[in-house]
Write a structure and sequence with these properties.
about 25% strand; about 20% helix; ATP binding (chains A, B); 9-stranded mixed sheet; 5-stranded antiparallel sheet; Rossmann fold; alpha/beta; homodimer; L-asparaginase_N_sf (chains A, B); 9 helices; ATP-binding (chains A, B); GatD_N (chains A, B); EC 6.3.5.- (chains A, B)
């Protein structure tokens, strides 16, 4: 049994089939499944049989062996091209690329990238790095911190732009939190795929190519680059703090809430253009503040909500409430919220309407919430407010001031006058 | 001190100013505040002073006294016009109408309606009824049941259509739950106001007029009628189960999610038109199933969520999860969810994407959730799924079947092919 063999792995509860990858230890097998995900299996607990030998050519980590079909064992560094770092966290788009090992923190190089997406050739010099290999619903604050550190290291090492390959489920949360953690002199562009590479309708190639073009642009912000429509013509560039996955399956699921996207990438002309003002390349120096207060929750209020949910957040550092309308909850909950605040929990109000600002000065309920000490987050999206509160509690001396101020485009100018 | 006097009420914690209304008991004062809301005050606990006598003419409940400025003491019933019942639950729009008493269950008649919104004259014969007078963030399942009973009684008494005046914060939840509780042979049209009547930009008149026109139409469904744009030209008619307040303050905040509105009302021509198929007037007989299982929660999953939230719903009858993407949560939560289901809690999956169907057959996480016994709700909106689950647990023999079936338009045909 050797790396590259097609194997079946029988465990007590489940059977996998896939290609055996090289592994750093003999105790653990790493198998690449059909969908592209890698699964790690404890060798002792599994029954493994070889289905076919040597079905897949695995590059040696020393690159001395025979190489892929193109026959080019080295991609030359081109001084005329920018260097783009591709960081992978997992998800459908990452499964396109065959990492040479199943381990997290594995490196991958230009060859791996170009074998997976040949259209990327000639656009940049590439560096690749695996930060995580998870389904994005399993994203957690410590991985955000690893990702921010990795992005920062790549920029410090000279990357002219960074592309983060990420599952689409939680991309908006990750793009938001990195917007707060990092001041960046170069573009940091998240991209992903709503359909895997084995489907005719896959969006992975166009999204990857467009993300690289965006990472070469002069917009030094955290962006999300995904299909702008169901056609393969334009990718939209969304500000990381204002983007939301608004459809479960469409390729153009990602939208900027409450505004047009910041810009777009024309797939045919490769032109990147922006509609509004943005922070330009090299406008700020690289800096990183990756600390997060993890003990922050998001609570969505709906009619009939059990007040016990407020008991769960008792003692928490912070809670973001997704209220109704201008930022309301049942008035019976207000004394309990006041108590939480008196006991040291920071409570921030957002709206489940998603668009528009909360404004708790209009109705009695809102005024009572403000009197209780609730902090308004303007039109910050609830998910963005959650990760911002995690960040602000760990990094800001004045959390109320921070939550009411736009630090990374998360609060928009009032687009609709109140009257 | 008499009804109609302008008074100041000082309580331990707060001072009110407003017009004293007639009250059914001497122990309780009812004061109409500037914003239009009524507040009830325990007489013993309050210090009341008259600021000005007889500032407001209060109609006697026997209608024998002198009447309003128009001098018409009776509005004649017009055989050629349909009869529309106006039910009020409170909210900004209801504050337009001066009820003759501050009590819930108060009646109001055509005169009250036409004094408040003269543009309603000549469109219908009106009956009026106060079901509740609450801020809509305080909406609760028992009030939904009262409202359904009241609507049913009005239809049984011969109303050709019903208009429900409702605060906008939770209108979508109320319209949804009535869609499940009632089979109706006539239109039931919710309307409200995003700006109160004392503002130049108020939307209350156009919304009320358009709702009455919709209530005269042949669409025998539960609808929401609100501004379709920022202009005063067209109101959109949304199916009650698919509508969402998508902006905190705009007059056109309400949108049908994942489709065009079902129809609209042209304010100038008064024409009501529909874009798609709908249930027609008299297609079904009136019936009501108002039972609700109140012990149902909605839980929004976000990265870093404390698993303790699942402990709160332990023993609950049901919980709707607002998952990521196609309907996912962190895989660490799945064993706990399985345990909940084994202990009798019905767990339903929806998506925080809002548009698009959940589909847990695509990725491992989803398949594990299905194996654990989670029920998929198609593209039912999370809030609609919560009230539907409340209803289904009380009225359906097969809750899984019910949650996967469109009972009132809450699950749409697949509008976007999967590939």
């Amino acid at each position: 049994m050797n790396p590259g063999d097609r194997v079946r792995v029988d465990r007590a509860d489940r059977t996998y089939e896939g290609v055996l990858l090289p592994s750093s230890t003999d105790e653990r097998l790493v198998v690449k499944l059909e969908g592209g995900y890698n699964v790690g299996v404890d060798r002792e607990a599994a029954d493994v049989s070889v289905l076919a030998e040597d079905v897949y050519e695995i590059d040696g980590t020393d690159s001395t062996g025979p190489d892929d079909e193109a026959g080019s064992s080295e991609i030359e560094f081109d001084d005329d091209l920018p260097t783009i770092s591709l960081l992978s966290t997992g998800g459908t788009i990452a499964s396109t690329i065959d990492y040479r090992t199943g381990a997290v923190t594995a490196q991958f190089d230009a060859e791996d990238v170009l074998r997976a997406v040949p259209d990327l050739a000639g656009r940049a010099n590439y560096r690749g790095r695996v930060v995580a290999n998870i389904l994005s619903e399993n994203m957690e604050p410590p991985i955000w911190q690893d990702l921010a550190e990795a992005v920062s290291e790549e920029i410090a090492a000279g990357a002219d732009g960074v592309v983060v390959m990420h599952g689409t489920d939680t991309m908006q949360y990750s793009a938001s939190v990195l917007s707060f953690m990092l001041e960046t002199p170069v573009p940091i562009v998240f991209t992903g795929s709503q359909r895997s590479a084995d489907r005719p309708s896959s969006d992975n190639v166009m999204n990857a190519v467009s993300a690289v073009e965006a990472a070469k642009s002069d917009c030094a912000e955290v962006l999300v680059c995904m299909h702008a429509s169901e056609s393969d013509d334009v990718c939209a560039l969304h500000r990381g703090t204002r983007v939301r996955k608004n459809h479960t399956s469409r390729r153009d699921a990602f939208e900027t809430v409450g505004a047009e996207p910041l810009g777009d990438v024309d797939y045919e002309t490769e032109g990147v253009s922006f509609r509004r003002g943005y922070r330009q390349r090299d406008a700020v120096d690289l800096s990183i503040e990756p600390d997060l207060e993890e003990d922050v929750e998001l609570l969505k209020f709906t009619p009939g909500m059990d007040p016990q949910f407020l008991d769960v957040v008792e003692g928490s550092a912070g809670v973001v409430i997704e209220g109704t309308g201008l930022g309301h909850v049942h008035t019976d909950l207000i004394p309990r919220i006041e108590e939480l605040i008196e006991n040291g929990t920071t409570v921030v109000m957002t709206s489940q309407c998603l668009e528009g600002r909360v404004c708790d000065r209009v109705y009695d309920t809102g005024r009572d919430l403000l009197e209780a000490g609730v902090i308004e987050a303007g039109d910050t999206l609830p998910g963005t407010a959650k990760v911002k509160l995690m960040w602000a509690l760990a990094n800001s001396n004045d959390v109320e001031e921070a939550m009411g101020t736009s630090l990374a485009g998360e609060i928009q100018e009032r687009s609709v006058p109140w009257e």
